[in-house]
């Protein structure tokens, strides 16, 4: 009997103690409120705000952002994005700290983070809701809330900013780079890209580049001896680089994520940064009688490069658009032809080929042994998906990304019942699109493998991949 009493005594003691602990523990809501307050205090406590070098995904470069959180639930955001007339470069927006998947930092008012979220039809990888992960030394580490859906988790690390460090923000350089765009922005929803040649006068060397402006990536195409397109073609001393690399802006300088090395003309270069200096206007003819306004930026004493000139240009010393026996380029209708006013030629093409499905460009394609096809034109599909080809043959020469083509009268048509009207329509359409016989092929960087063909003689353009 006594043993039972002892056991009951201890059971009651244990239960009593548990009840005592439960009654004195903070509630879940209280603990959440404390955690939220603690994170808010961390955010507002630093004297110079926070620096965030933000890369929305592994496929982008870096956006430099400074954030100064305030007790009233607002945050000043300074960034280097020039879009929307510079409205995103200095904002005060509202934020809140919530608790759903853990502590969450949410930017409530439209800001740079919402802008990046919306790019490329919300597939760019940007985020405006971040889950707090941990504090590491003085840094606050967050992860993107929605990245788990797509498999890649983006880490955003807030680092205490130094005094006046926000002065490093580059507010002009992005607008400078946008001056290199040749009628590409907003066509078919393609993001902005621009083309520039970097020239080193001391060595008489040109390096051709393309900038994916929204994605903060830079493509180094190639390098060559000479300055002008005519010089470079005549010397024929060039090397392929074909290197795509992320970058950030800092103090009006392009800072590469990693160094790019190239050797040409007996000279080697290691490129890690490219300052964008003062600008001047100039003009150049890329087709007889068609003058293009260009912009040139000059900088002196660039590390590893010396004095440089950065000039917008259609011409590039190298191109991945090349002929091949098993290669052809194609794009589905209606994305393939725009006139000088960026109007798509839908009705004009459909009036000749009502069932048009694609534009195709065969470039050294092997039809049979010793039979190569160089032709461009249209493909139709009927209601049972039977394809018919209406292609016009051409002869060509290519130097870098520049193609001179001449239609040779050899058409490739698989329609046994083709009409004279269709043949005349094919010839009229291709004569219009490729008037002057000069074409530049530009890499539309936001989409890998997509090319823009651009006719400098009438400013027609389109896409193939």
Summarize, please.
This protein is α+β, with helices and mostly antiparallel strands and 465 residues long. The chain has helices spanning 2-24, 28-45, 112-122, 147-150, 173-178, 229-235, 346-350, 420-433, and strands spanning 50-54, 63-69, 74-79, 90-99, 103-107, 129-136, 139-144, 155-160, 193-200, 205-212, 217-225, 238-250, 253-264, 267-275, 278-287, 290-302, 306-312, 328-332, 356-368, 371-381, 387-399, 402-413, 438-443, 451-454, 461-464.
Write the layout of secondary structure elements.
Layout: H1 2-24, H2 28-45, E1 50-54, E2 63-69, E3 74-79, E4 90-99, E5 103-107, H3 112-122, E6 129-136, E7 139-144, H4 147-150, E8 155-160, H5 173-178, E9 193-200, E10 205-212, E11 217-225, H6 229-235, E12 238-250, E13 253-264, E14 267-275, E15 278-287, E16 290-302, E17 306-312, E18 328-332, H7 346-350, E19 356-368, E20 371-381, E21 387-399, E22 402-413, H8 420-433, E23 438-443, E24 451-454, E25 461-464
Antiparallel strand pairs: 1-2, 1-8, 2-3, 3-4, 4-5, 5-6, 6-7, 7-8, 9-10, 9-17, 10-11, 11-12, 12-13, 13-14, 15-16, 16-17, 18-19, 19-20, 20-21, 21-22, 22-23, 23-24, 24-25
Overall description:
It contains eight helices and 25 strands. The chain has 465 residues and is an alpha+beta fold. The chain folds into three domains: 32-168, Lipocalin; 173-312, no CATH class; 328-464, Lipocalin (Beta Barrel). The protein has a nine-stranded antiparallel β-sheet with strand order 14-13-12-11-10-9-17-16-15. An eight-stranded antiparallel beta barrel has the order 1-2-3-4-5-6-7-8. β13 (253-264) and β14 form a beta hairpin. The radius of gyration is 30 Å and the shape is globular. Residues 1-20 have low confidence and may be disordered.
